Amino acid sequence: MISMKKCWRCKRIFFLYLLSICVFLPLILLSERLKHVLYLGKKEFVEDLPSIKYRRDGERLSVVETEGDEGLKVPDLVVYRDGSKENPKSNNSSGNAADLLGKNGTEQKVEEESKQNPQKILSTPSGRKEQSSLTKIQHDKSIRSQPQRVTDEKIKQIRDQVIRAKAYLNFAPPSSNSHLMKELRLRIKELERAVGEASKDSDLSRSALQRMRTMEATLLKASQAYPDCSALVAKLRAMTNRVEEQLEAQKSQAKYLVELAGRSTPKGFHCLTMRLTTEYFALHPEEQNFPNQEKLDDGDLYHYAVFSDNVLACSVVVKSTISNAMDPEKIVFHVVTDSLNLPAMSLWFLLNPPGKATIQIQSVEKFEWLAAKYNSTLKKENSHDSRYTSALNHLRFYLPDVFPQLHKIVLLDHDVVVQRDMSRLWGIDMKGKVNGAVETCQEGEPSFRQMDMFINFSDPMVAERFDAKTCTWAFGMNLFDLHEWRRQNLTAVYHKYLQMGRKKPLWKAGSLPLGWITFYNQTIALDSRWHVLGLGYESGTARSEIDRAAVIQYDGVMKPWLEIGISKYKGYWSKYLNYDDSLLQQCNIHE
Fold it and tell me: What is the pLDDT of residue 2?
């Protein structure tokens, strides 16, 4: 009995053992298989991520609207063979990853082979995967390397639609209130509101494109209602002519306003002049004198003359010259202004002395001989242009009379800035000429001028005495030999031509054409680096040319002290002014 129980117990244990093996062993084997499958799936998923990313990028780029496909390059087809040395996995495992980054070695060979056999495609899964990934990468790089072109075709089409709609509106009588006319007016308002300030197609909204299609439908109705094309052409031509006339009028008005602004003086400058004048008359007489006045007639020193009624402009000319001089104690400045600005000019340089240099301030009204002998020729009837009426502008032609004791002098306009030491000018051989100046007859240069641009060579007297092809030169920085000037009596020559110009139009306004004929064949050319022009208008003068120049000039109406001045050039001028000065602060004069 006991042995039978033991036998049944052993059988039962044995059956349970077999049952457990049959149940749990498949589960263990299945779990191991699942781990392997999940690992491979995860690996393949990670490897497929680049292709997914580039596929998404390609889909996103394909949405961008382009004008054409001429600029797109077909991506290079790169094919790798299984088991070859060109396989990227084998290269990576061997440590030759650099070959995949550059177009050399293995990749270059594969590309050459792919170009020879463009239709050859591998059939293995790994080959397809590598080919697809690399092809998409190169395709994506090719697309991203192309610059996105900014187009405005839709903007132009919308504006053309508006013009056509307005032309159709002109066909109907002004009092017409038909349904088509109302619809055209409505569509014009909608399109103009939709476009707004847009300048490229990407600025347009979807509603603008929808309104564009709606307008096209309305224009189709209008073309059916008014089928006469010749009448439409005539209307469009009339509209074009009217717009051109308005454009010319606007240009003329803009030019006049710019010239008017160029001749005006900023409000802060008026304030500064008034404050300086008030404080000047509060000084004692002995406090109004400048030091070193015994040097004014010393011929061994470097004499400069500036004729101006602009206090700050004169200040920049004086300060820039002295700041860049090697021997400032040898410099003598002669500033001539009018009686109205004499107190302000004097006090400014008393408060801001020129260091070791000497300065003299005079009034043009002091020269009584000028009023007695030449005043009648300095004015032109019915003219408000300072180029005709300003004695300061024409005083340059009387330098030997203004400075009877001097033999050489440099005349600087008040719109110049000196950037180099000028002492070498006095060592130039004038070769018997009176005027030393930079020439302006080089074609293609911003400062290019011809004599016939300012002088009337249709007059027989002018054509006989002067050659229109003679090289011109510039005022602004001139070296004058006053001794030779006196010997040839060129002031009388200027006076004669000025009188002739009053009788008939021989030249344009200003002192430059008069200077060309007064110093005709009496001018020696200086190196162009002495004097660079073009900072007072949009001349395109190169920054390198400006930086190497000894003197730069803001010729033109866009002076650096005006709001219309060119901002990129203002720094050369403003760095010689102390805007922290209390007087400038009180008059709201800022950089």
Answer: 61
Long-range Cβ contact pairs of 64-70 (< 8 A, separation 24 or more) = 64/148, 65/201, 66/149, 67/149, 67/151, 67/153
pTM over 0.85: no
Among residues 275, 276, 414, the alpha carbon closest in space to that of 350 is found at: 276
- CB 292, CB 264: distance < 8 Å: no
Closest by Cα among 176, 169, 157, 166 to 243: 166
For residue 174, the model assigns a pLDDT of 63
Half-sphere exposure of 420 (CA within 13 A, CB side): 16
- Structure confidence by residue, pLDDT tens digits, 500-538: 887 888 887 778 899 999 999 999 999 999 999 999 988
Amino acid (1-letter code) at residue 53:
K
Q: Pairing between strand 477-481 and 408-412?
A: antiparallel
The C-alpha angle 470, 476, 477, rounded to 5 degrees, equals: 90
Collect all residues with Cβ–Cβ distance below 8 Å to 580 and sequence separation of at least 6: none
Under 8 Å between Cβ of 334 and 389: no
How is 455-491 classified by DSSP, letter by letter? B-TTSHHHHHH--TTSPPB-SSEEEEEHHHHHHHTHH
Q: CA dihedral in degrees (439, 444, 450, 454; nearest 10)?
A: -110
Residue position matching structure tokens 């187009």: 151
| Token pair 């899964």 in the structure block, residue | 125
> Are residues 302 and 423 in contact, defined by beta-carbon separation less than 8 angstroms?
yes
Query: Please, what is the end-to-end C-alpha distance for the chain in angstroms?
Result: 122
Q: What is the C-alpha R_g of the chain?
A: 43
Q: What is the DSSP secondary structure assignment for residue 439, as one 8-state letter?
A: B
Instruction: State which residues of the chain have pLDDT below 70.
Output: 1-3, 24-27, 29-150, 173-177, 372-389
Tokens describing residue 479? 């070296």
Pull the structure tokens for residue 108: 């270059």
Both tokens of 230, joined, read 């010749």
Distance CA 553, CA 476 (A): 7
CA distance 40 to 51: 17
HSE-up of residue 171 (Cα within 13 Å, Cβ side): 21
